[in-house]
Design goal:
- By secondary structure, this protein is α+β, with helices and mostly antiparallel strands.
- Helices cover 28% and strands 23% of the residues.
- The chain has a single domain, classed as Glutaredoxin (3-Layer(aba) Sandwich).
- Helix 1 packs across helix 4.
- It starts with 18 loop residues before the first strand and ends with a helix.
Length: 171
């Protein structure tokens, strides 16, 4: 029996709409990146494992694209607007993951963006940080086309080579 790899769209489209503030303090929405592919990952700057691992992996993949990276806008949308101000995100990304533009907003704006991308994220007490909290969240990277339409997504368990191959196929 032939196994067919299905990288198709989910049963219903991912709208991918948002109105947020970038890490330079500019108001942006999905149309701000018209003409560019968007690689979208949700997370937060205080994340200890999932976000650093995924952002580093995505950064290596973007580096491997060479000049093709010019047609992509990698976006890191915060699920922790209380701590992730534009200034915090800018410092975090410029030092560690300079390909990415950080996006944040108020809780209502973040909730709308999460809903538009079907992202789960919920604040919980952090047993390793008394008085602190963590925000467990979906660890999927979305690829949107030049018009902001969903093309595909990359699960966290895919290898760098698989993501690079699938990303290259879409560009």
């Amino acid at each position: 029996m032939e196994v067919i790899k299905n990288y198709s769209k989910p049963p219903t489209p991912v709208p991918g709409m948002f109105t947020l503030t970038d890490h330079n303090g500019n108001k942006v929405d999905q149309n701000s990146y018209a003409g560019f592919y968007r690689l979208v990952f949700f997370g937060f700057t205080h994340c200890r494992v999932i976000c650093p691992r995924n952002l580093a992996r995505l950064s290596r993949i973007l580096d491997a694209l060479g000049d093709r990276i010019d047609g992509i806008r990698p976006l890191y949308i915060s699920v922790d607007p209380e701590r992730d101000t534009p200034e915090v995100m800018k410092k975090f990304l410029e030092i560690n993951y300079p390909h990415f533009t950080g996006l944040t907003g108020n809780q209502e704006q973040i909730d709308k963006a999460k809903k538009a991308f079907r992202v789960f994220a919920e604040r919980k007490a952090d047993p390793e940080d008394p008085g602190g909290y963590a925000v467990p969240h979906t660890a999927i990277t979305y690829l949107m086309d030049r018009n902001g339409r969903y093309l595909t997504h990359f699960a966290e368990n895919l290898s760098e080579e698989e993501v690079l191959e699938r990303l290259t196929e879409q560009l």
